[in-house]
């Protein structure tokens, strides 16, 4: 089977390092930092959008965006995994899936450079066959193109997409792919507000869901 995961809020609790990068920029501008909940609520549409939201929250003119975006990006690229950690159960699940012969992809709106570096620093990269970042194509999720590209690179096989947010539920629907919702990530709405076929609170629950889909596919 081909299983594609979203990154921020799904495989990795990545908000702390994003907060540090954004707050280093704000500090350089002589402005107050933003708290983790606020930064977390800005995650989902990629780093440029996050920086745009940070500028708005602190009353900085959008004309400053090019310079301040570059700052946040450079701070973040230098340290994407100092404080961020995989959600509990993620390393074991990825090891198990890859030992069972499943192919694994990551489709994230995060730029590809810090996405790959983070996966490497957190010792997850060896389980992952394909990474498609938010800057790989002109379109970002919820446009279905990046998700289609990720599955295309994984090759033929039954598809499952795993994500944590409104954007992920929407992209799965747009791409016509079965969707499993990680309920402990960065979504804003209640679980019922996000269309999903499967859901799980802990990664220990996802293995059996994938086993059942694989069995069902083999029997069909
Ligand atoms: O970078 C973001 O804003 C979101 O990243 P994600 O697609 O991995 O959740
Ligand atoms: Mg996410």
From TrEMBL:
Catalytic activity entry: 2-phosphoglycolate + H2O = glycolate + phosphate
Domain of life: Bacteria
Pathway involvement of the protein, from the record: Organic acid metabolism; glycolate biosynthesis; glycolate from 2-phosphoglycolate: step 1/1
SUPFAM superfamilies: HAD-like (SSF56784)
Cofactor(s) this protein cannot do without: Mg(2+)
Keywords noted in UniProt: Carbohydrate metabolism, Hydrolase, Magnesium, Metal-binding
Broad EC category: hydrolase
A Pfam family recorded for this sequence: HAD_2
Entry's EC annotation: 3.1.3.18
Protein's UniProt keywords contain Magnesium: yes
Family recorded in the similarity comment: Belongs to the HAD-like hydrolase superfamily. CbbY/CbbZ/Gph/YieH family.
Protein name: phosphoglycolate phosphatase
UniProt gene name: cbbZ
